[in-house]
Amino acid sequence: MNLQQFRHVVALAEHRHFGRAADAVNITQAALTQSIQKIEALCGVQLFERRYGDVTPTAYGEVVVETARAAISKVHHMHRQIKLMQKLAAGRLIIGCDPYFAEPIVTPALIRLLNHYPNLEFTLELGGWEMMQERLIARELDVYIGFAYESMDTRIAIENHTLPPLIVFGRSGHDIMRVERATAHDVFQYPIVVPKASLWLRQRLEATVSRLSENDEPKRLPAYLLTTDFGIIRQVVRNSDALAAILKRSLEAELAAGVFARVPLQEINFDISLVIATVARHSVTPAAGALLNEVRKEIAAVASDDH
Q1: For residues 83-121, b (16+ Cβ closer than 10 Å) or e, as one string?
Q2: Residue-range domains of the chain with CATH
């Protein structure tokens, strides 16, 4: 049965008269009679009793009428939701993001979007590719923003961007700030507090540390604490000798206020490879498209920070 047939059934049930029901759906009485007969033939049962000018649903008809009303209501709701989504007046978006990019890139993008479209709903989930790739493929996430991933599944579409290097920071007054030119060896004499590094970042850091070490043994990155919460990282670094790495933009206010200081480290200076990932061969929702436009603006701003 199609939506038009559902409307015919509902109209006849409500008006209880073929003539009035036909007028309500803008067809002739003969056309409505023929439509109802086809529906009854399709169902294999009588749906309406016709007696003394009054038309009422049979027990079978009540089931069909109830189903028809529900179907019509759902279609109306669907059209309304589509219109709201087009106007960004409704919608829900689940974003996956590497912790390094949540604060400097995704957060300001979300703020601008929510200021313009307060009825949108967002969920931001932090983590690396190792835990997010399968969720993106399963469409449990609408979009993922993180480091490049060499083992990218072909079912994922990516958009590549380049950001300036991370900076290493510690509390103001830290002993390492007295070093004129710190080395990776100097940094790793202290506890390291970081999010769990993506494979891309971890491989490049370990290659850098190994290259700068005094022997040829491969080096593993030491970590005193792994957490996705940069608020915790800030507290630990501010109140201990621990060091951490971050995009400069995330720390500018605290650097200017003298809460933290940038470690004078020169060796770890490779650019960051960031990707925006979505499911291949699937269009993004209007809300996701609007968010990604704002994210691209933030990426461009961060990319220009050191230039």
Answers
A1: eeeeebebbebbbbbbbbbbbbbbebbbeebeeebeebe
A2: 3-86 (1.10.10.10), 96-162+280-303 (3.40.190), 167-262 (3.40.190.10)
Picking from 152, 161, 185, the residue whose alpha carbon sits closest to that of residue 271 is: 161
Please state, in angstroms and rounded to a whole number, the distance separating the CA atoms of residues 215 and 34. 90
Q: Report whether 170 contacts 233 (CB < 8 A).
A: no
Q: pTM for the full model?
A: 0.70
Q: What is the pLDDT of residues 26-76, one digit of tens each?
A: 999 999 999 999 999 999 999 999 987 799 999 999 999 999 999 998 998
Here the tokens at position 182 are 């710190």
Mind listing the pLDDT tens digit for each residue in 97-145? Answer: 999 999 999 999 999 998 988 888 899 999 888 788 889 999 899 999 9
Alpha carbon distance 92, 226 (integer Å): 30
